[in-house]
Design brief:
alpha+beta, 16 strands, five-stranded antiparallel sheet, Dna Ligase, domain 1, DNA damage
C-alpha cells in the first residue's frame, strides 16, 4: 500500500491565531485522488491532518509517479506550513510528514524508494507518546526510532507500555490491536451552512452574490459523495424573523450551474420587507447519482434531462402552484388514470397500484394489463349524458361506430365501482368522440366522456 500524509501544526492556545488551513478544503483535495481518506490527530503533539491511501488509484492516474506529481501540484495553493510525505504504511507516512517532509517534488517522488531503514533514522520525538516517556528514553541514551526497534519486545512492553509498542508496530506494518485505527472519514449525511453578510441589505443582486458561495459549498459536498439532491432549503434571516425558500429540481443533480439558475429565477420573484443579515442553506436528502458513460453518438436520455431543466425553470419563474405534472396511474378508470400534481410523481418501481387504506384491494401490475384501445387526453370534467335514444350505429346517421366495445370493470371494492362499455365514434360534426354505456344503471344510459384531438 502507499499512503500520503498531509499534516500541519494546530495551535492549542486559543489566544493565538488559528491555523489558516481548512480541514474541509484539504479533504476535498485528498478525496479527488482516493476514496480512503482518514483523519489523524496526535494526542501528545499539535499535529493534525489527513492520511490518503493512493495505491488503488495509481492505474487511474497513470502510475505512482504521475499521481504523486499531480498531488504535489494540487497542494501548491496551500502555504508552506503544509507538510507532505508518503510511505507504504500510514503511520510511517505520518512520521515522515512531521519530521522529514518533502521539500520539493523530487523529494516527494524519492520517498517511493524509502523502506524501514528510512524510519529507523527518525528521532523518537515523532512518536505520539507521553513527554515523560520520551524523557526517559533520552535518559537511557535512545535518540532514534531504530534504538527502540532493536530492543527486545517483551522488555519494551514491560518497561514502556503497550501503547508505545503499538505506535512502533503500526509504523513498520505489524498488526497490533492497540494501534491507532485508520478508519475512512465519512462525510455527514446532511449539509447545513450559514453565512453572515458583511452588510445588511435587501438588494437581491448582492444577496444572490453571497448565496452563490453557499451553493458552491453544497455542490462540493455532493460531489464528494457522488450524490445529487432534488431540494435545497434556504432561509434569509432578518431582524424580525426569516424568509424561507425551497429550491426544487425535477431530477437529482449536483450541477452548480443548475442551482444557480434556479436561485436566480426564484430570488427575482421575492420581496424582502427588511434587510437580510444571514443566509442559511440546508440539504436534508440526497441520492446516489448513476454513472454516466459518455458517447460520441446522440444520447437518448439527453432529451429527458433538457425537459426536466425546462420544467425547473418554469416552476422557478412562474411559481410551483402554476405548473402541473401529469403522470399515469395503474387504474383502468379513465378519470383516475391521470394524476396532476405540483411535483414530479415519485413511485416505487416494484409497486404498480397503491392499496387503499383499510380496504382489501388487489394489486395491479402493468405487465398483466391487456392493451387497451386508444383513449383521448381531453376528458370532460363530468361525463355528459346523451339526450334521446341510444346511438344508432349506421352510416350517415348521427353516430358512426369506429371501434368498440371496450369493457372497463373495476373498483368493486371501493366507493367508485365502474362497469362500462366504451366506444370510439364519429358524431354529426365529424368529431372523434369517446362514448360509454353505464351498465351499473338500470336503464344503462349513454354518456359522452371525451374528445380525440
Amino acid at each position: 500500500m502507499r499512503w500520503i500524509a498531509l499534516s500541519y501544526k494546530q495551535s492549542r492556545n486559543p489566544r493565538e491565531v488559528k491555523s489558516q488551513f481548512d480541514a474541509n478544503s484539504l479533504f476535498e483535495l485528498a478525496a479527488h485522488y482516493s476514496p480512503v481518506v482518514c483523519w489523524r490527530q496526535d494526542q501528545h503533539h499539535e499535529y493534525v491532518g489527513w492520511l490518503v491511501e493512493v495505491q488503488s488509484s495509481f492505474r487511474l492516474f497513470g502510475g505512482a509517479q504521475a499521481l504523486l506529481s499531480q498531488f504535489w501540484e494540487s497542494t501548491e495553493e496551500f502555504s508552506g506550513e503544509l507538510q507532505l510525505a508518503n510511505h507504504h504504511t500510514a503511520t510511517g507516512a505520518w512520521w515522515l510528514g512531521k519530521c522529514a517532509p518533502a521539500r520539493n517534488l523530487d523529494d516527494f517522488l524519492a520517498m517511493l524508494n524509502f523502506n524501514e531503514n528510512s524510519l529507523l533514522a527518525l528521532p523518537i520525538s515523532v512518536l505520539d507518546c507521553d513527554v515523560k516517556l520520551q524523557t526517559t528514553w533520552r535518559q537511557c541514551g535512545f535518540g532514534r526510532i531504530g534504538d527502540l526497534w532493536r530492543l527486545p519486545r517483551d522488555g519494551f512492553l514491560k518497561r514502556f507500555g503497550a501503547q508505545a509498542l503499538a505506535e512502533l508496530d503500526s509504523g513498520f506494518g505489524l498488526q497490533n490491536k492497540l494501534a491507532i485505527a485508520t478508519a475512512p472519514h465519512e462525510p455527514a449525511d446532511t449539509f447545513e451552512q450559514e453565512k453572515e453578510l458583511p452588510f445588511h441589505s435587501d438588494r437581491l443582486d448582492l444577496i444572490e452574490h453571497h448565496a452563490q458561495a453557499l451553493l458552491e459549498a453544497v455542490c462540493n459536498w455532493l460531489k464528494q459523495q457522488k450524490h445529487g439532491t432534488r431540494e435545497l432549503h434556504w432561509a434569509f434571516v432578518h431582524a424580525h424573523g426569516e424568509e424561507v425558500l425551497r429550491l426544487r429540481s425535477a431530477q437529482a443533480t449536483d450541477c452548480i450551474d443548475t442551482w444557480k439558475r434556479l436561485l436566480h429565477h426564484q430570488l427575482g420573484r421575492m420581496q424582502f420587507d427588511d434587510d437580510i443579515r444571514n443566509l442559511r442553506v440546508q440539504c436534508m436528502h440526497s441520492e446516489l447519482l448513476p454513472n454516466v458513460n459518455r458517447s460520441f453518438l446522440p444520447d437518448p436520455a439527453e432529451g429527458t434531462r433538457n425537459w426536466n431543466n425546462t420544467c425547473d425553470v418554469l416552476r422557478a419563474r412562474l411559481g410551483e402552484q402554476t405548473v402541473l405534472f401529469a403522470a399515469t396511474e395503474s387504474d383502468p378508470r379513465p378519470e383516475c388514470s391521470i394524476v396532476l400534481q405540483h411535483t414530479p410523481l415519485q413511485k416505487p418501481a416494484n409497486t404498480a397500484f397503491k392499496k387503499i387504506e383499510n380496504q382489501h384491494a388487489p394489486e395491479l401490475n402493468n405487465a398483466t394489463l391487456a392493451a387497451s384501445s386508444p383513449r383521448p387526453l381531453w376528458l370532460l370534467p363530468t361525463p355528459k349524458p346523451l339526450q334521446g335514444k341510444a346511438p344508432q350505429w349506421q352510416v350517415g346517421g348521427p353516430w358512426q361506430l369506429l371501434s368498440g366495445p371496450e369493457r372497463v370493470e373495476f373498483g368493486w371494492w371501493d366507493a367508485k365501482p365502474c362497469k362500462r362499455d366504451y366506444y370510439c365514434a364519429r358524431d354529426s360534426n365529424s368529431s372523434l368522440v369517446w362514448l360509454y354505456q353505464d351498465l351499473l344503471e338500470e336503464d344503462a344510459r349513454w354518456f359522452l366522456h371525451g374528445y380525440f384531438a
